[in-house]
Amino acid sequence: MRSAGLRDEPSDIDEECRSLVKKLGEAGWLQYCVSDEGGVLDVRSLALIRETLARHSGLADFAFAMQGLGSGTISLFGSEEQKAAYLPAVARGEKIAAFALTEPSSGSDVASIETSADEQGREFVINGTKTFMSNGGIADFYIVFARTGEAPGAKGISAFVVDRSTPGLSDDRRIEVIAPHPMAELRFENARLPKTALVGVQGKGFAQAMATLDVFRTTVGAAALGFAKRALQEATRRTQERMLGGTKLSDDAITQSKLAEMIVDIEASALLVYRAAWLRDVKGRSNKPRSGSRETLCDRGCTDGHRQGSAALWRARCNRWPSRGKPLPGDPRAPDLRRRFRGAEDHHRPSAPQGMRVMGAFSKGYTVRFAHCHPAGIADYPRLLELCDAATPRTRAC
User: Fold this and answer.
1) Is the pLDDT of residue 295 over 80?
2) Which of 116, 133, 155, 240 has a CA-to-CA distance to 29 between 20 and 30 Å?
């Protein structure tokens, strides 16, 4: 018997993911995943949508995010022909995208990838393996990063758009993970691509991958924020229902203090995440720390720190009550998905000097301006809430 308050997991994750992509496309939300005519992606809109979806369904957030990440390199660096061939279909939910970067021997160390793309006449021949590919097995096309050999390390990597139907590409080896979502290993055995499959400039794939990830990095924080808000909602509901010693758990002073801490962390995270998005959109600043720039260090340190803090807080406090090994509503296993999306925690954690600068900035009255964060292009935001209610399985009654 299932524990009260648990969601029913879809029996077919692949089909559920395809359905979510279709619904998001039909409702017009996937248009935010592709660039406008100027090649720009609005990070604030992406963040708001991801926060809302994550609060209702981790799989819906995943489906939305992967449409953006999987097509992002084309949005930023693709030719007009590539944009016309793929982006409109991505925005309508007719094509599912995937971002193929990770390999068995290289994760965060992108410069050490081994998949090769040998130039032979008018073609590139790809050989190698990609692993932990989100949307693997259901994607209609993959953005694949392979070594073309212009130079060692990061300077010898290029990006290619590879249709799933390409001979020599196999994506049938599926990977089971704790937070259910489509994932597979990709194997390339003499997969031949026309030169028109090259995305952007040959040998610039590393920079393209980093630029694509940089756009979506802030939205990962927004998704964690949505998870944390759902956790607070569920924790609060639980304390109001749970009787302890003849009184509600919510009347206990220690419980009230813990909930208050959660609220403070969530509010701080929201301000930091959306300020980072505003800086990206309005000021054109990336998430890379710059020498001598206290503001950028503060943004990265605080956003990363509160993202991890909120996720940890959520797992610790919402898993405190028995659930027979099953997740509470909203799927608390989803932070594990966020962590895989970003890479190893230690790789992204701010260094000690960065943390000191962060604290120094706040002690000197560093302020966060949230009023400028709301983008004009998402005025129909209430429709997203309606879509979430329609697309998300209902919670069982207690």
Assistant:
1) no
2) 133
Q: At 187, list the tokens.
A: 């194997």
* Domain-embedded: residue 385: no
pTM for this one?
0.75
109 shares its domain with 92: no
Q: Which of 4-18, 39-53, 84-98 has the highest mean pLDDT?
A: 84-98
Domain, as residue range, for 49? 13-97
- 230 and 193 co-located in one domain: no
Distance CA 10, CA 374 (A): 34
**CATH at 17:** 1.10.540.10
Whether the per-residue pLDDT at 209 is higher than 90: the answer is yes
C-alpha distance across the termini of the chain, in Å: 13
Pairing of strands 141-147, 97-100: parallel
pLDDT score, position 153: 80
As a whole number, mean pLDDT of residues 104-120 equals: 88
Contact in structure between 202 and 150 (CB atoms under 8 Å) = yes
Helix axes 43-56, 253-278, angle to 10 degrees: 150
- Chain-centre distance for alpha carbon 339: 9
